[in-house]
Amino acid sequence: MEKVGFFRSVHVKFVTIYLLLILIAMQIIGVYFINKLEDQLVRNFQQSIEGRLPLLEYSLVEEMMKDRTDESIPPLEEEVGKLLADFSAQDISEVRAINNRSLIIGTSERNNQSIVGQKTTDVMVKRILAGGEKEDKIFIDEQSGNRVWILATPIKIGGEVAGSIYLVAKIETVFDQLEEINQIFISATLIAMLITAVLGILVARTITRPISDMKRQAVAMAKGNFSRKVRVYGDDEIGQLAISFNHLTRKLQEAQAMTEGERRKLSSVLSNMTDGVVATDRKGRVILINERASQMLNVSRETMISQPVTELLLLDDQYSFEDLLDQQEPIVLDYSTDESPFILRANFSVIQRDTGFVNGLIVVLHDVTEEEKIEAERREFVANVSHELRTPLTTMRSYLEALTDGAIHDRELAPRFLDVTQNETERMIRLVNDLLKLSKMDSKDYEINPTWVDFVLFFNHIIDRFEMTKERHITFKRMLPDKAMFIKVDEDKLTQVIDNIISNALKYSPEGGQVTFRLKVLDEQIQISISDQGLGIPKENLEKVFERFYRVDKARTRRLGGTGLGLAIAKEMIGAHGGDIWARSVEGKGTTIIFTLPYDPEQEDDWS
Ligand code: ADP
């Protein structure tokens, strides 16, 4: 956090305001007080001098009234000089007496006796002699540079102006005194300001300390530390603020804990979801993408944040973000590659405020690869079944039509045509039976009924049956153990499996070919294989022959009466026994169908 500059600190502001207040107060008081004091002191000074004047005037009148004809009486100037010298005190620099003819009749200044007898030029004195009243003035003496007070008063005898007293007083002492008082005042102001500054700092500190505390606390809170508490210094407004602050801290901590808890819950829900979730802001940029979505879309979560969602879903050439906002129906995203199918269904829901303002979009991605596969298989199955049923029916219809159109009366054609329709009917029955078998096996409660069987004997019986009924010249080669081997199997079902494999081997064997039957004992299973020397199965179809309705060469197998379901049924049945079935083939050389069945020699011992 930014540090508060010294000049912007509360301390400085406080102290400055205090000092300014004190300064203004002192200035106002000072100006008023000093002015009043000056007036008072000047007036006192003047009054003290003026108070002594009547006595001087009286004495001067006495002297002036004396009859100077008497020789014994000293001359007027001498007497006046004495009076004036007596009158002159510390605060008076000179006193002169002037008669009504403007002649100076005496001065107190010893060194200035030469002016006695001279005419005065002073205007103030002249005005008084002309009948004026007392006059005074203060001015600065040019020689000394000090202020002096000049007073001129009339000397009256019987109401008539008989002369004037002219007085020069050293009023500078009064101003010196005032200067001293001023100095005291300035130092008092400085001391007051110093004390104020100290007090100001102390007062400011009582405010700033809790505030600094709160500031530190706020910084700590911003970093997620809620354990601190602000110290409450008192019960004033700042104390109340500190209490409120602590309360706020507690509330914030609770809210933070709650938000954190919610966040964790949400994030664990999102990360454990089996569906992918992507959320965007109102501009369609990704703001959240859960683990599953990033796996599904094969992107890293960090790099996709802030990217347009249309780009993330690889939809940018078909849809704009606005299109997705209006998208009510889910969109199927096909990310399948040649190696593996991968299909997602994306559902869109808009995050909207009550006002209708769009805040963003949530996309939920659901993996529908399996569903789509099953759906595709179902469609294919239905198409296959319809096709398989329609083919014999169309054949039968055309033959029956021919019979109806008259062929029935043809002794040669009629039995042949009826033979064909019978064959087709049988094929349809086989097909429907096979379908029923498969549908039974598909149902959940399909069970096999295993019993203990000597498998070698059981296998030999089946081969015998085929050997006896075979129509073409094909040799059978048995490479089977000559001892009994007991395993637990559902005889009926296994008969169907082996029947189908042998009849295929015979069907696809060339005239004079050989079919070989083998039985091998492996660790915990027996492996049965039936090989022929027929035309074989192309390598890429080796696994597909176990799929429903799959035939390598449709026309030929149909001609041979196959339904395309035999190996699919065999696979289901072997699977139900806990075994496995697969094919090996070299094209043109022959095919081997191999299957395994669980075998436990120890248990077998109990039975043999
Ligand atoms: P089908 O009833 O048509 O024989 P199957 O499920 O038994 O149906 O066999 C599926 C397909 O596998 C056959 O149509 C055939 O193309 C191929 N097939 C099965 N066994 C052999 C074999 N021994 N030799 C060559 N092809 C075979």
Q: How does this model look, in words?
A:
With 608 residues, the protein is an alpha+beta fold. It folds into four domains: 51-170, Beta-Lactamase, CATH 3.30.450.20; 276-363, PAS domain (Beta-Lactamase, 2-Layer Sandwich), CATH 3.30.450; 373-441, Signal transduction histidine kinase, dimerisation/phosphotransfer (DHp) domain (Helix Hairpins, Orthogonal Bundle); 447-605, 2-Layer Sandwich (Heat Shock Protein 90), CATH 3.30.565.10. It contains 16 helices and 17 strands. Strand 3 and strand 4 form a beta hairpin. The radius of gyration is 68 Å and the shape is rod-shaped. The two termini are 91 Å apart. The structure holds adenosine-5'-diphosphate (ADP). Adenosine-5'-diphosphate (ADP) is lined by residues 500, 504-505, 508, 532, 534, 537, 545, 550-553, 557, 562-568, 591.
Summarize the structure.
The protein is an alpha+beta fold. It has helices at 10-65, 76-87, 123-129, 172-222, 237-272, 291-297, 301-304, 309-312, 321-326, 369-404, 413-442, 455-469, 491-508, 554-559, 566-576, 601-607, and strands at residues 92-99, 104-107, 135-140, 147-157, 160-169, 276-280, 286-289, 331-334, 343-352, 358-367, 451-454, 475-479, 486-489, 514-521, 525-531, 581-586, 590-598. It catalyses: ATP + protein L-histidine = ADP + protein N-phospho-L-histidine.
